[in-house]
Write a sequence for this structure.
């Protein structure tokens, strides 16, 4: 990576991770200094800044990712990706500064916690990782009439890519759909590979015959195991955030999840 950016602009990109890495490439090779970085479809521009749209280029993004892994570290590339999946609008600029510092000092970048943006990237990485980890255990699949298994989720962060990768390795021979109803996207797995596609937030799902009865049995099992005198609602909320429960069989009937 060479050169210093000098053309100031409000940078727009398509919202993909490859698109963001293409922005990083432009900073170094097209001499762009982002005053802000926003997803083009959601941008709120100021008249004070010149907008500059950067197109996604997979070859350029691959070069940047390789440079992060080799010049900083593999761990830093994971931090960048997880932070990118966070919900905060500030994440793009924080990651940019994190990467620029990393290219200067190498693998020690994550230890420079005196820098606000380093702390922010590490915080977002942990937040995204924790939410994904919880959902690995809290995702609840139900059989549809087509034979695929359907799981609705409403995560705070964009953890759908992490869920898709996780379940593609654990439900390898079963077709499934994980539907992020908050963002209108779904990971669709056919038993071999998955894609992430735009899906209406209120898409209709037709469940297999008998699925309601199965769900009722699961709720009964859950309630039967519960020991009234050992209930600790405060601890339960810490271990199982309330916003997960609307999609979980134990806390809602299948008809209530749609």
């Amino acid at each position: 990576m060479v050169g210093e950016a000098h053309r100031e602009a409000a940078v727009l990109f398509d919202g993909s991770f490859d698109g963001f890495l293409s922005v990083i490439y432009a900073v170094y090779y097209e001499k762009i200094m982002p005053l802000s970085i926003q997803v083009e479809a959601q941008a709120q521009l100021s008249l004070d800044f010149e907008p500059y749209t950067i197109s996604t280029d997979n070859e350029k993004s691959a070069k940047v990712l390789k440079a992060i892994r080799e010049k900083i570290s593999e761990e830093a590339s994971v931090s960048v990706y997880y932070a990118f999946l966070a919900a905060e609008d500030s994440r793009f600029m924080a990651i940019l500064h994190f990467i620029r510092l990393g290219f200067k000092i190498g693998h020690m970048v994550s230890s420079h916690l005196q820098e606000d943006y380093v702390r922010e990237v590490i915080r977002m990485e942990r937040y995204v990782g924790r939410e994904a980890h919880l959902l690995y255990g809290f995702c609840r699949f139900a059989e549809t009439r087509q034979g695929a298994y359907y799981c609705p989720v409403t995560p705070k962060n964009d953890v759908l890519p992490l869920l898709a990768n996780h379940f593609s390795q654990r439900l390898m021979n079963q077709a499934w759909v994980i539907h992020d109803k908050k963002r209108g996207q779904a990971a669709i797995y056919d038993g071999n590979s998955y894609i992430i596609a735009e899906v209406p937030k209120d898409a209709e799902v037709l469940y297999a015959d008998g699925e309601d009865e199965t769900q009722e049995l699961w709720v009964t099992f859950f309630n039967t195991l519960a020991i009234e005198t050992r209930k600790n609602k405060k601890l339960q909320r810490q271990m199982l955030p309330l916003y997960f429960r609307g999609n979980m069989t134990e806390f809602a009937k299948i008809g209530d999840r749609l």
About this structure: Residues 116-138 form the longest helix (23 residues). Residues 79 and 127 are 11 Å apart (CA to CA). The chain has two domains: 7-130, 139-251.
